[in-house]
Amino acid sequence: MVEHAYARGHQIRIFTTLVGMNGSDIRRLQMLQFRAFIVHVPDDGTYMNSRLVGKSYLNVMRRLVEANIPSIRFVVLGKVHPDLADTIPAKALQRLRPLSNSRGRLESNIIKPRQPVVGPLTCIGKQQHRNVLLPNGDVTLCGMDFERRHVLGNLLRDEYAYLFESPIFHEIADRMNGMDGFLLCRMCEFAHPQTSGCYMDADQQT
């Protein structure tokens, strides 16, 4: 999918943990140019499963570092996994802010979910403009919709512009403007109460 999108002239941003990748994948990625290439580095086990870091993973990480992709950045929550500490270039490593609640989907023993926003709301992160294309063609509202609760449509059958004219998107817009009904955004840390006016006009989103 990445190679196809690149061949069509689209700018490419990669966000990956490298889990499941191999040396062949790295060689193919070296042939492309990226707007951003972000690697989520396993930590010492506080937030990520440290058992993911095995011999194969370490080999892939070393090969990626050696590939010297210009736009690559490594990000980590907490401390870098000890087996990776000497592999990740310090100048390319960034420590992220504490975990968000991922719209209330993380377990409470990891991070306490926020109280849902009631009534009209606005997205201070403008996540509704950052739709996510999944391998099967589905397009979700934003990168925080891990459970695919708000699937706008599918690009195998729908034009992208149509997604913002569809009943599904109009329903999301109405609920962000205060209409009753399920809205995943209410549990999101980007949600902010809107005290007056209409937050989102679905007809103006294209």
Summarize this, please?
The protein is α/β, with parallel strands linked by helices and 206 residues long. 18% of the residues lie in helices and 16% in strands. The protein folds into two domains: 1-95, no CATH class; 121-193, no CATH class.
Can you walk through the features of this model?
There is one protein chain. The chain is α/β, with parallel strands linked by helices and 206 residues long. It contains 4 helices and 9 strands. It folds into 2 domains: 1-95, no CATH class; 121-193, no CATH class. The strands form 3 sheets. It has a 4-stranded parallel β-sheet, with no helix packed on it. The chain is globular. The protein starts with a helix and ends in a 13-residue tail after the last strand.
Write the element-wise H/E pattern from the N-terminal end onward.
Answer: HEHEHEEEEEEHE
What is the domain total for the residues?
Answer: 2
Portion of residues in beta strands equals 15-25%
Number of strands: 9
Cα radius of gyration in angstroms: 19 Å
Judged by helices, strands and strand pairing, the structural class is alpha/beta
The dominant shape is globular
Helical content stands at 10-25%
Alpha-carbon distance between the termini? 24 Å
Q: Low-confidence parts lasting 5 or more residues at pLDDT below 50?
A: none
- Report the sheet with the most strands, covering strand number, pairing sense and barrel closure: 4 strands, parallel
Main-sheet strand order equals 1-2-3-4
Number of helices: 4
